[in-house]
Design a protein that fits this description.
Blueprint: E1 3-4, E2 12-14, H1 17-24, E3 29-35, H2 40-56, E4 60-66, H3 71-76, E5 84-89, E6 92-98, H4 103-112
Parallel strand pairs: 2-4, 3-4
Antiparallel strand pairs: 1-2, 3-5, 5-6
Helix pairs in contact: 2-4
Length: 116
């Protein structure tokens, strides 16, 4: 079961490996934010992603994953640093970036991979 969150960004908050697998196995691109509540940089990137999501919600799903709750997929996606954003389609990774980025940097990243 996917839990819908009241905030704009990360309408889907993933709490298990099964939920993540279900959420990313679709034909629409998905931007996954791997983060943790205790992570300072993760808190910084969140409002930036909220702004970006407003512009790209028709092209991409945006989800947030807490690394402590999806250990299998954290290993599967080889998450070494947080925040890490991974763009997927059909459950497969297309590209990624780690660390805090500006709104323009994230938009440029997504524009490069727009999935129709």
């Amino acid at each position: 079961m996917v839990i819908y969150h009241k905030e704009i960004i990360h309408k889907m908050i993933i709490n298990s490996d099964e939920q993540l697998n279900e959420a990313i196995n679709n034909d629409k691109g998905t931007l996954i934010l791997f983060s943790a509540d205790w992570c300072g940089p993760c808190k910084i990137i969140k409002p930036t992603l909220e702004k970006v999501e407003e512009s790209f919600s028709e092209s991409y799903n945006f989800i947030k994953v807490d690394i402590s709750e999806v250990e299998e997929n954290t290993k599967k996606f080889n998450i070494r640093n947080i925040p890490t954003c991974i763009l997927t389609k059909g459950g497969k990774e297309i590209s990624r970036f780690s660390g805090v980025k500006t709104e323009d940097q994230i938009k440029k990243f997504l524009e490069e991979y727009i999935i129709n």
